[in-house]
Write a structure and sequence with these properties.
By secondary structure, this protein is mainly α. The chain contains 16 helices and no strands. The N and C termini lie far apart (85 Å). Among the domains are: 131 residues, no CATH class; 160 residues, no CATH class. Helix 3 runs antiparallel to helix 13, helix 8 packs antiparallel against helix 14 and helix 12 crosses helix 13.
């Protein structure tokens, strides 16, 4: 595997940008042909893009700023494009199911590859392909007290894998979203859960836990049916129990052999190094935001600030809370604009929460938002793009269902009943007079 420079690695992924650009151009053309003004969500996204462009212009690190703009705002462009295209041309019938199935399939492959990556390839794999020549393995691939490499699967970091698998677990937990038998979804769920555990990503585990709790709350109308499994055969119960028992056995083995008890104990006690440094990191981030309420420009904070070497060294601002990383770059107003956009999206999803995808999108947003309090991993393209995409698909599907579900208004003569005004029932056809 080639050790590409950051610029070469970014250029290699330009196909993704070209794909989004093509979708955006198609949406722009459809938008110009459409009569009417943008709605509130569209105005907010356009304002975010304009503000982001302004903070590219004022940034002292232009190349890093352009990369940060692409990472932060390309998913928002995709959301806007999907909504516009769906409104003008409609959603393909199988698009939502195929999107969820494709994401879960790729996440499951990443989770399955974790096992040979950790137990067969070991540290040699990470040192060969994820470490520059002459340098030591980055600390993010290690965990305090853990005697084995952290799982990354087919991705580039343990926390990125954790966030991706958290999204996959939420999609698998939603009924009627992925068209697979229940036992098959259970096996996939266990595979993704084991991959998440082997990543030792606490932010990913928190995102998954919070997302699944939110999902359970949104699906509370299904609880009575879950509590009365009438007519289930013993063979069907065994088919669900088998993957759960296998997963529990493997997780117990990994927990006892990897040194995880020490990590859990030190994390709870607050003596684990990253946990110890988090309060100071938060204080530093808040101090920078209060000292620079208008922001410092894109690319000036967070791990990505050192990507192209424009701002490396002791003066780089590092804080592990993603919201502070974002506010340092675009200021308090920019953060407030993002929060307003998220609330408008959440309100639209809440109104259509009867939809399986809307429930999944709400759970993803809340879960990943909770994880972003501790690790700035949410804006990775493999995490941020699916989040905005599934939100867009859910909002677009909800807007298509509104006119179909609206009750028809029928004029009736004075004194007639609603049933008479509605006409004959399909089950009772009209009788024609003879002749």
């Amino acid at each position: 595997m080639l050790h590409l420079t950051p610029t070469a690695g970014t250029a290699l992924n330009a196909w993704h940008d070209a794909l989004v650009a093509g979708i955006a151009l198609a949406a722009g053309a459809a938008w110009l042909r459409r009569a009417g003004r943008p709605n509130l969500l569209e105005w907010l996204i356009l304002a975010m893009l304009a503000l982001g462009a302004l903070y590219v212009a004022v940034s002292p690190v232009r190349l890093t700023a352009l990369y940060a703009f692409r990472t932060l705002y390309e998913p928002a462009v995709l959301l806007l494009a999907i909504i516009v295209l769906a409104r003008t041309r409609g959603l393909p019938p199988r698009l939502i199911g195929l999107s969820a199935t494709t994401f879960v399939s790729s996440a499951t492959l990443a989770a399955l590859f974790v096992w040979p990556q950790v137990y067969l390839l070991g540290f040699r794999y990470l040192n060969s392909y994820y470490t520059n020549p002459g340098q030591r393995l980055h600390w993010s691939y290690l965990a305090n007290g853990i005697n084995q490499p952290r799982g990354i699967g087919t991705l580039t970091s343990p926390n990125e894998l954790g966030a991706v698998l958290a999204v996959a677990l939420i999609l698998l937990a939603v009924p009627n979203l992925i068209r697979l038998p229940g036992w098959a979804r259970t096996w996939l769920f266990v595979a993704c859960a084991l991959g998440l555990f082997l990543s030792f990503s606490r932010s990913g585990m928190l995102a998954a836990l919070v997302g699944l709790v939110v999902l359970a709350f949104l699906a509370r109308d299904h609880w009575p049916r879950i509590g009365r499994p009438v007519g289930l055969r013993a063979r069907r119960l065994a088919s669900f129990a088998a993957p759960l028992l296998v997963g529990l056995a493997l997780m117990t083995w990994v927990f006892n052999t990897s040194g995880a008890p020490k990590l859990v104990q030190e994390t709870v006690a607050g003596t684990e190094p990253s946990a110890q440094g988090r309060p100071a990191s938060v204080r530093q981030g808040v101090s920078v935001v209060l000292s620079n309420p208008l922001g410092l420009g894109l690319g000036t904070a967070g791990p990505k600030a050192a990507r192209f070497g424009e701002q490396s060294g002791p003066n780089r601002i590092l804080t592990e809370t993603w919201y502070l990383v974002y506010a340092i770059q675009v200021g308090i107003f920019g953060l407030a604009l993002l929060v307003a956009t998220a609330l408008v999206i959440l309100a639209g999803l809440w109104r259509s929460r009867a939809s399986p995808l809307s429930r999944a999108a709400i759970a993803m947003g809340v879960g990943l938002g909770a994880g972003a309090l501790f690790i700035p991993i949410i804006d990775e393209p493999t995490v941020f793009t699916p989040l905005w995409t599934f939100c867009a698909l859910a909002l677009a599907a909800a807007s298509e269902r509104v006119p179909a579900e609206a009750p028809a208004t029928v004029a009736r003569a004075p004194g007639s009943s609603p049933a008479q005004a509605a006409g004959p029932s399909p089950a009772q056809p009209t009788q024609r007079a003879p002749g």
